[in-house]
Each structure stands twice: as structure tokens, then as C-alpha cells.
Design brief:
The protein is mainly alpha-helical and 313 residues long. It contains 14 helices and no strands. It is flat, with a radius of gyration of 28 Å. InterPro entries: BP-dep_ABC_trans_perm, MetI-like, MetI-like_sf. Its main location: membrane.
Length: 313
């Protein structure tokens, strides 16, 4: 008589396969639901901001429970914001120019200075290199509000020194002051990101360039920087976003429209007498466009730069 074979019954295998298929489909559906919830959570405020920007003021302050889309959309909020004939339009254009000049200047200076400093930390025998890198991270972790008083003291003393020596130049309430202040807390972040990426570039490539007659600066220019293009682009974008969105320092160190930035302008649209919700929404939407456009345009470099710098080769 033949002994029964070991193992599960033949009909058990299809049942097990069906359970695995059901489990895989359940996980897939759960993943789609989670992604959909994240997308809705992310886009809902932006959508609400845009709908408010194209809504008349009367619609925003009316009893509109259950009504989100304005019956009569208008672009007047945007046209008034750009019009030089109104006080709001003049201040908006000035704030937009200030934010652009300050952010681009901070990005350029931080990228140039940060590249050399990061390369030195990554390649040269810098004493206490790990302590320096840790210090850069710790300083960046400090909240901006914690730096306001030290910055205010330094700026006040510099202005007092300049006035005491008969100079008409001052730092307070100037774009130059904002550029210096932003650099002081963004530069460390730039150095930290770039030095991590430079360490992933094989040193043998620089040695080969040195054998071919390149100096260390030439190797940096012709070998390291071309290979680090994604990291440089990602770091420049992050530095620009940090400078563009900064609010606390601009609030403390500016007092006139000639030096106010865009986040400060949006905050000042609300007064103690009336809050122009439609103008705030329009200005906020326009202020959010440059970072979003830059992030979408250079997202390939952004992802490649950050992920490559985080992987040790």
C-alpha cells in the first residue's frame, strides 16, 4: 500500500495563493488611499488660497457655508496687486524686488563661499573637522527667534560705530543688512550639505587630474564641480527657498517699504481696522509661485543632489 505524500493538500495551494493576492491588493489599495490623503492634505490649502485670490471681497466675508467656488471669479485682486497706480501695488512691486535681490544675492554668495569651505572640510586636513561640521548642524538647528537679540546687538553696535565716525552709511533697515543676516544662518547649511557630497566624489579622480598638471583649484573646477552639479543645484535651490521664505529677521530689522520683503508685505496687509482677505490671498499665491516653479523645474537635480550626498560610497 502506498504511503500518503507529505505536505499540504493540493487544494491548499490555490487557497494560499488567493490569500496572498487579496493581501497584496489590500496593501496596494491602502497605499493608494494614503497617497491620495497626503495629496489632498497638501493641495487643499493651495487650492483654497487660489480660490480666495480669485474671489471678490464681498464673497469671502459673506455667509457662504458649503460654497467654496466663487460664482463670479475675478482677477482684479492680481491686477490691483501689480498696478503701480495704487499704494498696495507700489509696495507689492517693491517687496517683490527686495525679495528677489536679497534671495539671489544670498544664494550666490553662500554657494561660492560654501563651495570652497565645504571642499576644504572634505579634502584638507582641517583640525577638529568633525567638531566644525557638528557646529554647523547645531547652529542651523537653532530657531531664528533665538538669534534675533544677538543680531540686533551686533547691527546696533555697527551702526553706532559708523555714525560715531561721521559716516552716513547704516545697516538697519537696508537690503544689505538682510543679505548679511540671511547669509549668517544659511551659509552653515550650505557648507554642511556640500561637504557631505564632496566626500562621495572619489579622490582618485583629483589625483589623476593633479598628475596631468592641474592644481588643487584646477581639480576642483574641472573635476569636482562638474560631478557635483546636482548637489550644487539642489543646495542653491534650498538656499534660495530659505532666504525667500524668511520672515522673523525681516520683521525685526526692516521698518520701511524700501527694504521690506514679500513675506513681510503679505503680513502687513492685515491691519487693526480691516483685513483684506482677497489681497492677502492674491499676494500669498504670487509669493508662493517662484519656489513652487523652481522646485518643479529642478526637482530632478533636487532629488539627485540630496540622495547622492546621503549615500556613502
Amino acid at each position: 500500500m502506498r504511503a500518503p505524500a507529505d505536505g499540504p493538500e493540493p487544494h491548499a495551494r490555490p487557497a494560499g495563493a488567493r490569500r496572498w493576492r487579496v493581501l497584496a491588493q489590500t496593501k496596494r489599495v491602502g497605499l493608494y488611499l494614503a497617497v491620495g490623503a497626503i495629496v489632498i492634505w497638501t493641495l487643499a490649502p493651495v487650492t483654497w488660497l487660489f480660490l480666495s485670490a480669485i474671489s471678490p471681497y464681498s464673497f469671502l466675508v459673506s455667509d457662504r457655508v458649503g460654497h467654496w467656488i466663487p460664482p463670479e471669479p475675478t482677477l482684479r485682486n492680481f491686477t490691483d496687486m501689480w498696478s503701480p497706480a495704487t499704494d498696495t501695488g507700489t509696495r507689492f512691486r517693491m517687496a517683490l524686488a527686495n525679495s528677489t535681490v536679497v534671495s539671489l544675492s544670498v544664494t550666490a554668495i553662500c554657494l561660492v563661499v560654501g563651495t570652497f569651505a565645504a571642499y576644504a572640510l572634505a579634502r584638507l586636513e582641517v583640525p577638529h573637522r568633525k567638531g566644525v561640521v557638528l557646529g554647523l548642524v547645531v547652529v542651523r538647528m537653532l530657531p531664528t527667534i533665538a538669534l534675533v537679540i544677538p543680531f540686533f546687538v551686533v547691527v546696533s553696535q555697527i551702526d553706532a560705530f559708523l555714525v560715531g565716525h561721521g559716516s552716513n552709511v547704516h545697516l538697519f533697515d537696508t537690503r544689505a543688512n538682510l543679505i548679511l543676516l540671511y547669509i549668517s544662518f544659511i551659509l552653515g547649511f550650505v557648507i554642511w550639505v556640500l561637504q557631505g557630497y564632496f566626500r562621495t566624489v572619489p579622490a582618485e579622480l583629483e589625483e589623476a587630474a593633479t598628475i596631468d598638471g592641474c592644481s588643487r583649484l584646477g581639480a576642483l573646477r574641472h573635476v569636482v564641480l562638474p560631478l557635483s552639479a546636482p548637489a550644487l543645484m539642489a543646495t542653491a535651490l534650498l538656499a534660495f527657498l530659505l532666504a525667500w521664505d524668511e520672515f522673523v529677521l525681516a520683521l525685526v530689522f526692516t521698518r520701511s517699504p524700501q527694504s521690506a520683503t514679500l513675506p513681510l508685505f503679505v503680513a502687513e496687509l492685515g491691519s487693526q481696522y480691516i483685513t483684506a482677505h482677497n489681497q492677502i490671498a492674491a499676494a500669498g499665491f504670487v509669493a508662493a509661485l517662484p519656489p513652487v516653479v523652481l522646485a518643479l523645474a529642478f526637482q530632478r537635480f533636487l532629488v539627485a543632489g540630496l540622495t547622492a550626498g546621503a549615500v556613502k560610497s
